[in-house]
Amino acid sequence: MNMTSPQRTVYVNGQYCPETEAKVSIFDRGYLFADAIYEVTCVLGGKLVDFDGHMARLQRSLQELDMAMPMSVDELLAIHRKLVAANNVDEGLIYMQISRGSADRDFNFPPKDTPPVVVMFTQSRPVIESPLAKRGLKIISLPDIRWGRRDIKTVQLLYPSMAKNAAYQAGADDAWLVQDGYVTEASSANAYILTSDNKIVTRKLSFDILHGITRAAVLRLAAESGYTLEERSFTIEEALAAKEAFITSATSFVTAVLEIDGTTIGAGVIGPVSRRLREIYIEKAVAAAK
């Protein structure tokens, strides 16, 4: 299906309408100040993956920015489900964005009773049979110059967009960002390596990285499957010497990294651990989707 079809139904502040008729004020603070948060929920078999986790992170992001929940989780679930049905989405995603609202441009926050702006739309795309997941990723490393609260899922995505574009221009698929000599995360995913002694290593949770919903699920499933986990920082040099490397995100699930800065990782093919974790996650995600 064409993800940019003009026939898509989208949601804007209580209204379902064709995407060509959707409008948001030029005074929306998300537009003027990136004063907004977002969540992306994967759709598999017409159902929502890890929805409860995404809603928990949504509420945390709103709280950190002193923004109120615009409606209940049950109401948000109903909107998500209606959009999936209206757009006949079998595989893909739903993007949801909540801004502080519309008010004349002022760095100070508007009054507390300013209504938030809530928008949602769907994108249909292959997820389980993703072309990138089938062939593995090529990665470049770049300095991490984002703001210091990456744990809040805001729409401040200019630098991640620049990093992704720099990777494409270099013939790669994505970038791993480096701060003080250590990898933080990819442009829009969490980063991992498998060491020579078979430990799965990923950076521990802090303000420096997004607290990935898929990350939490994959680490839990990996532990249940008997893998050894180590939450700590690692360098690009460690990654280059690793047996495997991979990323996780809501729409990439577990996707292998086969090359970093032009150097092949391990055997240069999708490794058994990356492959197995992806299989386990998809199996559990499909079973638990709502």
Structure commentary:
By secondary structure, this protein is α+β, with helices and mostly antiparallel strands. Helices cover 29% and strands 29% of the residues. It contains eight helices and 15 strands. It has helices spanning 29-33, 51-64, 73-86, 131-135, 158-169, 213-224, 236-240, 272-288; strands at residues 9-12, 15-18, 36-44, 47-48, 91-99, 117-124, 137-143, 174-179, 182-186, 190-194, 199-202, 228-231, 244-249, 253-260, 263-264. The strands form two sheets. Strands 7, 8, 9, 10, 11, 12, 13, 14 and 15 form a nine-stranded mixed β-sheet that branches. Strands 2-1-6-5-3-4 form a six-stranded antiparallel β-sheet. Helix 5 links the parallel strand 7 and strand 8. Helix 6 (213-224) packs across helix 8. It is globular, with a radius of gyration of 19 Å.
